Automatic annotation (TrEMBL):
It comes from Roseicyclus persicicus. Residues 13-241 form the Nucleotidyl transferase domain. InterPro entries: GalU_uridylyltTrfase_bac/arc, NTP_transferase_dom, Nucleotide-diphossugar_trans. Belongs to the UDPGP type 2 family. It catalyses: alpha-D-glucose 1-phosphate + UTP + H(+) = UDP-alpha-D-glucose + diphosphate. Its EC number is 2.7.7.9. This is UTP--glucose-1-phosphate uridylyltransferase. Keywords: Nucleotidyltransferase, Transferase. Coiled coil: none annotated. It comes from the Bacteria. Pfam families: NTP_transferase (PF00483).
Amino acid sequence: MTTPVRTAIFPVAGLGTRFLPATKATPKELLPVIDTPLIQYAIDEARAAGVERMIFVSHPSKAAIERHVMDDAALRAELQARGKTAVAEALEEAALCPRADDVVFTMQHEPLGLGHAVLCARDHVLPGPVAVILPDDLILDAPALPEMIDAYAGGHMVATMTVPRAEVSKYGILSATGTAGRVVAASGMVEKPAPEAAPSREAVVGRYVLDASIFDALATQTPGAGGEIQLTDAIARGAGAVGLSGYRFSGLRFDCGSKAGMLRATLHLAAQDPDYAEVLAEIAPAAVRAA
């Protein structure tokens, strides 16, 4: 039987330069999609997957993330005193509580890459495989991590989606060897290949379930693109020893590391809420005229 996935790592130390000046004072993970910050969607996904410990790899300049993540009893008491009971209860439900939840904050002081960020969590993980969630990759309608854990049979598993060949150079691409339902067997992966050289159209997005050997691989990983420790390089190195697979998640992914992706996610959620129907009806004719 596969060891359960007990730990989720959230790499949240990045500067969010693509969203400046909005991210000068507000971490990009706290930017909202309508009224819910990206980090909250990631936390809710980890909760749905049943992980025990959440590790946030942050930066000293981003203390606001911890303030959002953890319970604020004083704020809730103030809201209760003002008669805003429903808001106070919603905040309590969303927040992590140090008395009831297993939460760790650790720092990545230098921007040495995603692989280095994951390595920063090494001393805090529980035994067994670990999950990694990138909040920038927002997956709506059906959270990906619970699906992946249900399908996980060992080794390294990465979330994938099939992309047009013209777009493979934007992603890490699996060297796929076969499929069984939503699981894609793979012999390795290639980072941002040219379309004519791509081994498949299975693009890796920001959800991972990784064998614990990933930490030894990262500790000895030489810098790759941009002089950074690349997580994909370490995963590819371990593919032969522990195995590698992709999982074609059923949800809808939005690249919220980009402004266009944030807008798409916001419009997607707004379209599902009748409170915004009038606003969307007003926007649609204007958008058609502009086109």
